[in-house]
Amino acid sequence: MHAKDKEIKTNNIIPFIPEGDFYFTKGVEAFQKRKFDIAIKWMKKATDMKPDEPLYKCQMSIIYTEIGAYHAANQLLTSVLQSSDYIDCYYLIANNYAHLGLLNDARKYADSYLDKEPDGDFSDEARSLLELIDIDEEDDEDWTLEDEDELLIYQETAFYHLENMEWEKALPIIEEMMTIFPEHSMAKHDYTQALFFTGREQEAIDMEEEILQENPNSLYSHINLALYYYEKSIKEEYENHIQALINIYPIHEQQKLRIAITLARTGFHQEAYARFRMLSKEKVNSHVSYFKWYSVTAYQNGDPGKALTIWEEGCRRHPKLSKEEGPWI
């Protein structure tokens, strides 16, 4: 090729300058592959190209939500609402507030979304979120600072005994806590556990059934009754409660953990394994039961290496665990 011809062909090349849609598409592809760092980079390029496009910012907020950056997600969504009325933002903000434990704010935005879009793309999710908030408020009680300190001491003491399956020691502590703090609903659920595993099984079941009748949204009643009926081999009742749990994805880590453990203890190892993998370890590593049952489900799902790693970490954090049989037994 002559130099002149080469120069002409070079000059005819049209430079490719991607529009925002190209970057957005690449970001979505990376997000679907769970490559979140790369997805954020592409989405930032997309928003730089089209800063007024609400869809780009909303998608970036969803990525932030996925990695737990809830405040950053809500900052983006709030900026969208300042310049447009992109209704989906209301649900997305509600979801982030729920993860942050700000349930009143979550309820407000979920209600706003349903007021504006009762049949919108996120209407089912918004209603489910409101149901979860109702369930979560079972634990939401007001105490004075002095009461909180005293209650915390009782809770920590009872927690230690329950986690180590020291049921006889847990019973009098919980009984005393129930006398001093009769409105503290969680104590009743802990009490039925201690009752059940000290041989007073029917008394524990009757008490949980009574609580559930008064509050059909009681997550902890479903958790306890699923386990009790499983242990008693009462299949129909057990299946009713376990199916209720399989369809519930709580907001708080402690509730997520309780469901994961219950699924593991009743033979739903695949479902339990998925739940354990979704937990934030930093928030639940004070629980011996987290390491014990997570390692069991890992082993039962064909990953003995991971099971051993979890078990060994559990033994380092909680030396008493080493006295129990490993997940391979």
Automatic annotation (TrEMBL):
Can you say what this protein is called? Answer: Tetratricopeptide repeat protein
Organism name: Oceanobacillus longus
For this protein, the record's Gene3D superfamilies field holds: Tetratricopeptide repeat domain
Q: Which InterPro entries match?
A: TPR-like_helical_dom_sf (IPR011990), TPR_rpt (IPR019734)
UniProt keywords, alphabetically: TPR repeat
Show me the TPR repeat boundaries. Answer: 20-53
| PROSITE patterns per UniProt | TPR
